[in-house]
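Q: For a teaching handout, I want to show students what a protein-ligand complex looks like in token form. Below are the inputs, and the small molecule is FE2/S2 (inorganic) cluster. Please produce the holo structure.
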Amino acid sequence: MADETKPPAPGAPAPPVASSAPPAAPAAAPPAKPAAAAPAVNLAGKTTTAAAGAAKVSTRDPDDTSPLVSRRAWLAMAWGAFTAASAAALAATGRFMFPNVLNEPPQQFKVGLPSDFGLGVDERYKESNGVWIVRTNDDLVQRASGFYVLNTTCTHLGCTPNYLAAELKFKCPCHGSGFRTTGINFEGPAPRPLERNRIVLAEDGQILIDKSRKFQYELGQWIDPEAFLRI
Ligand code: FES
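A: Here is the structure, written as tokens, with FE2/S2 (inorganic) cluster included.
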């Protein structure tokens, strides 16, 4: 082994100079670090990372099967609710624009010529117009031959009596009130006679009835010229 403390012989090549510096690092590049996850912004406006998200997800109860509602799903539900409310409001508006129509019979109507009627009670306009048309040779009040109109509303509580031709009377099915063909009450709880309505001849010769005008016997109104049509 050569003595390193001896000086080198003349002409000999100089030995390499030992250096106190540490050896240089190898030229090879250090191993690449895993790419950092891109930060994301959650719904609350906080910045988070996929790792943090994964940590959050991992905290869910494994038995929890409820779906996570995304922002898009929330928007879809909100739009759906808004559309349904708008449709309901539109339907209500349409219903308001087309209200139920109550088809009541007219208060004034013609029933034909006097010659179309025989003596007695005519029931042809009971159902459609709520009146009986009566032809008589001698009216109770007017003491003349002609026509009068009886309203079919019972003066007790408003039921519609039936005409019993064999007994020449009107009989109310509700509480048993009875009325003569003149309209005078004679049995049951009805407190007063049936009402009469206006009856006149129209220009074309037909009988015209006007239910908007009524005549009450107990008030002395059956004597009115338009409460009886003289023929
Ligand atoms: Fe006609 Fe009562 S309603 S008797």
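A: Two things your students might notice: The pocket of FE2/S2 (inorganic) cluster is lined by residues 154, 156-159, 172, 174-177, 188-190 (CB under 6 Å). The chain has three helices and 13 strands.
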